[in-house]
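Hi, here's the filled form for the chain we discussed.

Project: internal
Contact: R.S.
Residues: 441
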Amino acid sequence: MKSNITGWKDVYSFTLKQVLKTKAYRISYIILVLVVLLSMPIAAKLLFNNAENENGPSPITKVYVNNMTQFTDVSFEDIKSIDSFKHIDFEPMNKDYNEVVGQITEDERHSIILNISEENGAYSLHLSMIKDGPLKKSQLQRLGDVLLSSFTNSRMESIGVSDEQLTLLQTPVVSKITMTDINGEEILDEDTSISLSEYMFVYGILFFVMMTTVLMGTQVATSIVTEKSTRVVEYLLITVKPLALMIGKVFAMLTATIIQMLSMVAALVISNKISANYSSGNGSLLSQVLPSDLFANINIMNLLLCIVLVFLGLLFYAVLAGLAGATVSRLEELNEGLMLFTIVSMVGIYIGLGAANTLMSSGTNTYIMFAFLFPLSSPFILPGAILVGKASLLLVGIAIVLQLAFIVILFRFVAGVYETLILHNGNTIKIKELLKIARRQ
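And the returned structure, exactly as it came back:
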């Protein structure tokens, strides 16, 4: 007597070969890899080319000082001790303001005006440059920080405040409230929240898994509907049972998607290395954007756990997409059939996004534990949480067991639905009708 899964390998190899031969798969594969391969160099070129070298000479050549206050004993000559600003000339404005503006506009486009004003006992330093000129706001801000420090030092010297006294006046005062036990020992409240950079890392993994899930689900459903509409499935059912047919097709489409995913990861690594050519010797794009301590929890064990979770999550959603394909008879109705798959996957994605936001704002809590363990959301949020050190091995083990249990149950249910609707050639099956099939099973 044949087992219900006998022949799934034949279905797997047949489906995988057919998918890899299709023009749509090859074109999408090439486009995805090229997009990832070019993303880092383009981003690095835009970021690093527009970034200002803080240690390089300032493009500002002259500053016209328009001092409108009673404090006339101000000099910015000490700024010239800084290499980046030693070439700048500070010239008191002895001409009409509009005349100076016209002079800068016509002949001195690398010059600016410094307006010093006083109102209600407070001083204001305002830098002005010509519109659409060669200077940038960031370059003015860089000089403005140094001017403010120099102006403050000049004021303190005029009233006889020494450097030590100024440092003492500017020292911040911090208040802190702590809880202590009966012995007076401080009770430490552990901070389990994640930083912004860790959040972006978790979000990046979530987005990558989401895109892979959507791509794979569409391919699985399309393959099943195509075979149903072209009657190929009738020939396949002569030698294999519905469960074996479903297992073979799901794993074949999952393999095709994993090939795309691994190629994108490889392209990302290569793209990141290429981006180092645009960073003026400061390393790759990711090494500069992400903090160095972000990858402290990345080791072989954690990487393997993440791979297992992502694989099980993709398998779960692939089977769910197979259910969507089983309810449709024609390709024209595929979008309607994918509605259930879309709703369920969006529920998992939004729970994962909510968990990532909660992790950053308040740390681990009951909702986070639910998102880690819930089979719909765990493939999206848990891999990133593992790599930033916010998930224990026990919790990951429980999540994997739950995922496996849901996959087995869903596989059996989908195979039953597939067998019931294998020759269905009418309207798309609704959720109520699926529930009736489930009750009969």
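Let me know if anything looks off before we file it.
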